[in-house]
Amino acid sequence: MSNMGRKARVGLLLIGSPRFRALGEGTPSGDYEARQAKASKRIVSAAGELGDLINPGIVYSREDMRRAMDEFFMKRADCVIALYMSWAEDFAWIRFLRDMPEIPILFAHIVRDTLGFTDTHDENDFIEFLAAGGLVGTQEASGSIPRFSRPMMETAVGTLADVMERARVFTQAARVRGILRESVIGLLASYNEVMWSTYVDPYDIFTKIGPEIRFLSVAGLTEEIDKVAPEEARAACDALARKYTVLPDVDFEKFEASMRASIALERMAAAAGVDLLVLNDIDPVLFRHVGLRPGFTPCPGGPPVTVVPEGDIGGGVATYVLKLLAGRPVNFIEPFHIDHPGKCFAAGHAGPNDYTDPEGSVQIARDVRFAKSGYKHAGAPFAWYVIPPGLKTMLHCSQGPERFKLVVTRVEALPTEHFITSYSHGLLRPLSGTSEQLFDRLVRIGVTQHYGLAPGDYVPHIRSLAAMLGFDFTEIS
Question: What percent of the chain has pLDDT over 90?
């Protein structure tokens, strides 16, 4: 399993001029190298707040650059923030562009809040003028960027606060890219045969996005269910019953059966090293052998496995990406219908869904969609969840004819009560335009019906991530 909770690993590449290095010796403010060392402390301090900083120090020589690249590579930097401290020769920078393995790079120029000189009549002020000349070096270095045409490269110009705010989004997107390359998707047990548009190429998932796919079986799940002690499942049910309302028609024997299957599902995934489990929860084989679809992931005290339904890996990736960005419970949804009079749309999903956001509303309810079926645990309950109000990011991921696509928009979740039986759900309103306009655009783009939904605004992060992954990106705003 990947380390989902880790910080971004941020490389910092500061470039100085060996030609200026010894100038200004004996002046009141010190030589050029001392001045740049002092100036770099503010940058290092600010960059350190972005994550785990990899700082090889100011680069002056070819040897310095080689050591810096080695350190970035060996410490597995997610990205590099690069900037010129002043004008400087570009031989080290061009070597970096040529030799550094592909990695997200934010090439920035930091505008000083104040200048340390008013004129350059004496040597002390002249050296300060040279030390403050990062704009010259940035422009010179920028000429090589299009000539190398490296992927995953962005630029930023602004004050230290401006650049670090831009870097915060960039480094978090790079962190998600890095974690995706360390992650594992489990598919149990197949794609959904009634939703062909959700199919993706597993080879492309690995080569273009990062996770490898491991194929899990219903037989393996039934074996794991048998290992879950009844008293353990009962204790987990009791924990949820103390926390949430249990509706009167819930069968506690079926409650425990659903909990056992949920615990087994997560343990099976964890044993396989899986971070994202994509469950085909309407597979007839699952119902014949298990008798229900597990309804209580994440389980109390269970491993950090993200579980999504309907065998849709693209929808699962969207949900997982948002969870990595938000660090909070994220939902897997499909829009059901437009409520024209209410100027909103209803969305949610049946089957497993993260119900653990304390701001949401949860009831333990029967899965009435399958209550009249002949399966062993027909009507087994699940965590019936209502999405809490507030700003949300709604993200779609699927495979297009040439590239994967990410489509993102901001919506507002409205206050509502439980009203769609057997589906975790909510009412959503686009922040811009009408629901009709939103879905007209989505249908013209060509999507599937599944999305991830996260609290907060992560559109800028997803824009950067799409560029890093080489995906088609559409923002609907």
Answer: 92
